Predict the 3D structure of the following.
Amino acid sequence: MKKLLALSLAAFCLLQSCKETDESYPDVGNAVLSSTIARAEGSWVRKAALKRPRTFAVGFSIGDKGYIGTGANDGKALKDFWEYNPDTDSWTQKANFAGVPRTGAVGFSIGNKGYIGTGNSDGALKDFWEYNPAKNCWSRKADFKGTARSGAKGFSIGNKGYLGTGEGLGFNNSDFWEYNPKTNAWLKRANFPGGGRNSATAFSIGTKGYLGTGYSEGKDYKDFWEYNPTTNSWTRKADFGGSERRYATSFSFEGLGYIATGMFDSSRSLKDIWEYNPLADTWTRKEDLKGDARATATGFSIGNKGYIGFGSEVNNDLWQFSRN
């Protein structure tokens, strides 16, 4: 990977950094390709594509908007950041991510703020940043307390964020950490009991977090675990319904979780999607993604819809998923 920019040491939300445009696309009106197709069995609708394909990006939602950023295109790490509006089916470029360009970072939202941290930029990272959509501005927060890493996973529950697993210092991690935005502090929590791994996937439903699949030591996984922050404990749940995989993406809405796409056996990209019901502890296969099979896609949810897009270097499409 080409040598990337040095990490900014700015610790405050400055207007100039919020308007950084080293990777901007001024023709935003041409940055999307609106191409809606008819629903097949009421599941998938193609939505506006982003101009620049990418892989290993992060995604999350805040309120009624979705956000994606970072990742890589043609071997170059990125720091551009975009907002998706489902009402107008359009993308708007926002302030560039304020850290160095990176791949394999973690992103989630807490309340009305978004967060991106860790990842890889010619080496593993541990910096952590907050995005304020009202001010379109980034602020550096307390560095992640675990070792620097990429391929980690995270989710938010209530007013806290959680980040763990991933690869760093030549090995896969199983530690898990809680971030409190009110105190800007990290607290070590119970290790993930499935063992060290990277390239897993994670989401939250209500007051519980979920993490599963992933890769370690030449092996792909399909085990699936629930985290309870109240008791600081993990419980193994029914194994993921599809095949073992790495680089899957996920989202949740209406009390159900979804895991989709990914890569099996280091070579075969996937397009299946599975629904998890935490009350029944069961998996149900839903209609396959209508776009290409892919790994390293990005997902988020807005209201009662899920969104999957990008991944596998050549993809810039976005697909909306609804329950049957």
